[in-house]
């Protein structure tokens, strides 16, 4: 595994050079997780930044009655853990599990802070990531409060297509592996209600779901359903 190349693909370190990121290599720790394995639980001590080298993670919360809400999904070369790492309490505010077999690169807080102090470009990207996380959390709360389920489902698919879409001959394929149940957790709705929304979008020719991936065939129709 070329750890330097992986770091250079991330949102935080992408502006740097190979010699820059090579400074971090002695402090990186590699760990592999099986599908469904816990990376950390909500409330755990936040000690490391996580770079997804291969696979896919989900950040989530579980209600008192056992319902799961997925707040974010992290595919390869995504970075997570920065919010808890820099929060005054130093704890994780969400649980984090592997959705597929996943390999991560872990970097502890002290060497990360030392590195950021020497590389202002990476520091700026880190602050941007924390800001993006804050805006996403506020937007998610607003959608849950104000939007009907059909609009939330369509809006989530549009956002996922923007973030993780790849052009195909028949539209856009969302590269994340996401089941209908996981999409329901993502929009904080029951699987039954989300399935009804997906059936309507599929019947309209806007989307399909094959091989664990959502495919967008009519983006205009999907955006109309999302109210955008």
TrEMBL record:
SUPFAM superfamilies: cAMP-binding domain-like (SSF51206), Winged helix' DNA-binding domain (SSF46785). One of its GO terms (molecular function) is DNA binding. InterPro entries: cNMP-bd_dom, cNMP-bd_dom_sf, Env_Response_Regulators, HTH_CRP, RmlC-like_jellyroll, WH-like_DNA-bd_sf, WH_DNA-bd_sf. Residues 12-133 form the Cyclic nucleotide-binding domain. CDD domains: CAP_ED. Residues 147-220 form the HTH crp-type domain. GO terms for cellular component: cytosol. PROSITE patterns: CNMP_BINDING_3, HTH_CRP_2. Keywords: DNA-binding, Transcription, Transcription regulation. Gene3D superfamilies: Jelly Rolls, Winged helix-like DNA-binding domain superfamily/Winged helix DNA-binding domain. This is Crp/Fnr family transcriptional regulator.
């Amino acid at each position: 595994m070329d750890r330097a190349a992986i770091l250079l693909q991330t949102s935080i370190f992408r502006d740097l050079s190979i010699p820059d990121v090579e400074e971090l290599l002695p402090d990186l720790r590699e760990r592999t997780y099986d599908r469904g394995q816990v990376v950390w639980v909500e409330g755990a001590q936040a000690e490391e930044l996580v770079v997804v080298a291969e696979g896919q993670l989900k950040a989530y919360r579980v209600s008192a009655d056992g319902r799961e809400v997925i707040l974010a999904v992290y595919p390869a070369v995504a970075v997570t853990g920065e919010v808890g790492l820099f929060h005054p309490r130093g704890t994780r505010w969400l649980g984090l599990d592997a959705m597929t077999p996943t390999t991560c690169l872990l970097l502890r807080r002290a060497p990360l802070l030392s590195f950021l102090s020497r590389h202002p470009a990476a520091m700026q990207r880190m602050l941007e990531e924390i800001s993006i996380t804050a805006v996403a959390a506020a937007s998610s709360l607003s959608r849950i409060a104000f939007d009907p389920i059909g609009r939330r489902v369509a809006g989530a698919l549009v956002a996922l297509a923007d973030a993780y879409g790849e052009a195909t001959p028949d539209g856009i394929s969302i590269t994340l592996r996401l089941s209908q149940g996981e999409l329901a957790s993502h929009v904080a709705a029951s699987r039954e209600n989300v399935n009804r929304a997906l059936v309507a979008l599929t019947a309209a020719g806007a989307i399909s779901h094959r091989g664990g991936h959502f495919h967008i065939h009519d983006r205009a129709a999907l955006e109309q359903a999302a109210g955008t």
